[in-house]
Amino acid sequence: MEPQAAQRQRAIFVTGAASGIGRATAVLFASRGWFVGACDLNRAALDTLEQELGAGFYRALDVTDRPALLAASISCSTTRASTRRVRSRRCRGRRSSRS
């Protein structure tokens, strides 16, 4: 990914991401090159998703806990920004592909 492309990378934060429609959504967006933030109550299933998708943001939490959900979304945004900066430096001056 070129530096400019990394800066334009879109992001999505998916709740209920470890199974069902949430999982399908996370997998679909990751396959299209989006940065995926994923949260779910089921830590084991979330770990499996993380192994499948790789880079991203993963947090086990209860979405009815509003402060925890807000903190996770802020952490996801910070993680994405850090990832974007690292990719930009690493890819400067050369092309690489991301699946």
Key terms for this structure?
99 residues; alpha/beta; single chain; disordered C terminus; 3-stranded parallel β-sheet; Rossmann fold
Detailed description of the structure:
It is a single chain. This protein is α/β, with parallel strands linked by helices. It has one domain: NAD(P)-binding Rossmann-like Domain (Rossmann fold, 3-Layer(aba) Sandwich). The chain has four helices and three strands; from the N terminus they run αβαβαβα. The chain has helices at about 5, 20-30, 45-55, 65-90, and strands at about 10-15, 35-40, 55-60. Strands 1-2-3 form a three-stranded parallel beta sheet, with helices on both faces. The relative contact order is 0.20. Mean pLDDT is about 80; it is low at about 85-99.
Can I get a quick summary?
Helix content is 55%, strand content 15%. The protein is α/β, with parallel strands linked by helices.
Question: Strands, helices and their partners?
Answer:
Layout: H1 3-7, E1 11-15, H2 20-31, E2 35-40, H3 43-53, E3 57-60, H4 66-91
Parallel strand pairs: 1-2, 2-3
The CATH topology is what? Rossmann fold
Shape: globular
- Kindly state the number of beta strands: 3
Q: What is the number of independent domains? A: 1
The structural class is alpha/beta
CATH class call:
Alpha Beta
What Rg, in angstroms, do the CA atoms define?
14 Å
Helix and strand pattern? HEHEHEH
The residue fraction in helices comes out at 40-55%
Termini separation comes to 10 Å
Beta-strand content: 15-25%
Main sheet characteristics: 3 strands, parallel
Number of helices: 4
Task: Walk across the major sheet and give the strand order.
Answer: 1-2-3
* Assigned CATH architecture: 3-Layer(aba) Sandwich
Superfamily (CATH H level) name: NAD(P)-binding Rossmann-like Domain
Give the averaged pLDDT, no decimals: 80
Poorly predicted regions are 84-99
